[in-house]
UniProtKB/TrEMBL annotation:
Protein name, per record: PSA aminopeptidase
Organism: Smutsornis africanus
Keywords from the named record: Aminopeptidase, Hydrolase, Protease
Keyword Hydrolase: yes
One cellular-component annotation, GO: membrane
Family assignment from sequence similarity: Belongs to the peptidase M1 family.
Record-annotated ERAP1-like C-terminal domain positions: 2-229
Keyword Mitochondrion (UniProt): no
PANTHER family in UniProt: PROTEASE M1 ZINC METALLOPROTEASE, PUROMYCIN-SENSITIVE AMINOPEPTIDASE-RELATED
GO annotation terms (biological process): peptide catabolic process; proteolysis
GO molecular function terms noted in the UniProt entry: metalloaminopeptidase activity; peptide binding; zinc ion binding
Superkingdom, taxonomy of origin: Eukaryota
Amino acid sequence: QARAGIISTVEVLKVMEAFVNEPNYTVWSDLSCNLGILSTLLSHTDFYEEIQVFVKDVFSPIGERLGWDPKPGEGHLDALLRGLVLGKLGKAGHKATLEEARRRFKDHVEGKHILSADLRSPVYVTILKHGDSTTLDTMLKLHKQADTQEEKNQTERVLGAISQPELIQEVLTFALSEEVRPQDTVSVIGGVAGGSKQGRKAAWKFVRDNWEELYNRYQGGFLISRLIKV
């Protein structure tokens, strides 16, 4: 109804607040998706910081309940929910989540305690979103050292979370380099486009500036339409 302009988006936010004690992954996934769309729209307004505060308020109770480590008897949906919630809190700048993500990332890079597969994306997104050139260099090093293509893809999808304009350009240049398989370039550019307002503008300009190369590379296949869509 809000999307159709029948009711105010404020009413949607009020309904969302009622889900703070919700245990179900599917429900949180839907809430996360809708809040993501709202964040994207509000990134062009003065309300962007306020929606981040709202995200932290809604997601922190479930984040505290789940914690960082699996509990006995948990199912795979709990692991998915933990990754979703911690990623959302980290991206929004939730202080305790950011500090713990940085600590765990440091241990992961130093080989002291390797991150579990379901925590890698949320931790990577969190440290990149609030990171600098050193953070990006470390992520690119992890990409180079990755043993499997799946690990490389996981890293490629999150690189666009970086915030500084010059580092966004570095990620876009990396997308077309030999380090990235041609079929995965779209994931990197898409990650930049979905990462921030600055990322969207930079990705759009990058696609236009490199259109000939991208078009020749994908020759009207499904990847070109996916690129345009993102």
